[in-house]
Design a protein that fits this description.
57% of the residues lie in helices and 0% in strands. The chain has 143 residues and is mainly alpha-helical. The mean pLDDT is 92. The protein binds protoporphyrin IX containing FE. Protoporphyrin IX containing FE (HEM) is lined by residues 42, 45-47, 52-53, 56-57, 60, 75, 80, 83-84, 87, 89, 93-94, 97, 123, 126-127, 130. Residues 42, 45-47, 52-53, 56-57, 60, 75, 80, 83-84, 87, 89, 93-94, 97, 123, 126-127, 130 line the site of protoporphyrin IX containing FE.
């Protein structure tokens, strides 16, 4: 009898990284940062030159989707929430980030719709965890 719960079993066809492949993943990341650069909510908190940011993101997603752990090898433990703390990530910015990702996925036909949905769902969970700042003008409820 299997002791692995169904949700942790590998989907047929290997990891998401195997199914998407490095070329489509690189296309997705390039397209995503093109949209981030044009997004009025996101552009102000990102560097003007997104080359290095995109390289880091591609390295991170490669490992995150089950490929080689490139980010760990090059930059160490991601500590993603800590690395995002210097940036004011409001719920609006979290939504804008995900909207850019959704649009980038839709514009990358080499990623199947099923894989795009699985990737988006995983990223939505991480994105929710990155939100670290209330909307401007909102007072945080006291505990
Ligand atoms: C919730 C919305 C998010 C916003 C507004 C946001 C914003 C940012 C910003 C401003 C940077 C710094 C860019 C730079 O200086 O190069 C950054 C870096 C990064 N972000 Fe995000 N991010 C979000 C969500 C995510 C998610 C969901 C992931 C992973 C799935 C992610 C992965 C990364 C990585 C890997 C880096 C590079 C970290 C490093 O400096 O080594 N981010 N992000």
């Amino acid at each position: 009898m299997s002791v692995i719960p169904p949700s942790l079993q590998l989907t047929a066809g290997g990891t998401l990284y195997d199914r998407i492949g490095p070329a489509a993943l690189a296309d997705l990341v390039t397209r995503f940062y093109g949209l981030v650069a044009e997004n009025p909510d996101l552009a102000p908190i990102f560097p003007a030159d997104l080359t290095e940011t995109a390289e880091k993101q591609l390295a991170f997603l490669t490992g995150f989707l089950g490929g080689p752990p490139l980010y760990h090898e090059r930059y160490g433990h991601p500590r993603l929430r800590a690395r995002h703390l210097p940036h004011a990530i409001t719920p609006t910015r979290g939504g804008a980030w995900l909207a850019c990702m959704q649009a980038a996925l839709q514009a990358t036909p080499s990623i199947s719709q099923a894989d795009a949905q699985e990737l988006y769902a995983a990223l939505a969970r991480v994105a929710a965890h990155m939100v670290n700042t209330p909307e401007p003008g909102q007072i945080e409820p006291t505990a």
